[in-house]
Give the backbone structure.
Amino acid sequence: MALTRSENMARIRSRDTGPELWFRRALWRAGHRYRVNATTPVGRPDVVFARQRVAVFIDGCQWHGCPDHYVWPRTKNDFWAAKLVENFGRDRRQTLDLEAAGWRVCRFWEHEVFEDSVRVVDEVERALDTTGWRPALRYCVVQVDTLEAGLERRHVENLRCPGDRTVSERPRITRKWKIPNVELQAQR
């Protein structure tokens, strides 16, 4: 029996997702101890190093507008356009407010965790070492306009710099990035 769209959406987890578990295992193997979904002055990042004031977010490519893997839905365009802008606004607000409060914020796309977890852990280690760390540039899709002949116009904006926006036209992306088939078990 096929699930309805509502049933499918209800099954999407907000914590302990595959990318988060994969990332946390990589951190643990590297000898790091952390808090999961701990409260900070602004929200609940996926991983928190409270003493060093480092917050780590693992963002889903589809939900947060990955420039490489975001797929513009074919239906309910008004709803998804508002959802994309809302998620981007929340991500920007959390990041800038945490940084203003003296925290170092690392944000990674889910595909980065699987494709290069060593680099992701190295980036977190640099953030934990208070000297010389600078956050990586972070661009997100904030708007998609459907054009003719299978093209789309993508508006991509820098998360930390309001107004730093680029617009490009490219063929429509129709295939979502999928989590590799790996065994993921919840850490307890």
In short: Residues 92 and 161 are 9 Å apart (CA to CA). The longest strand covers residues 139-146. Confidence is low (pLDDT under 50) at residues 184-188.
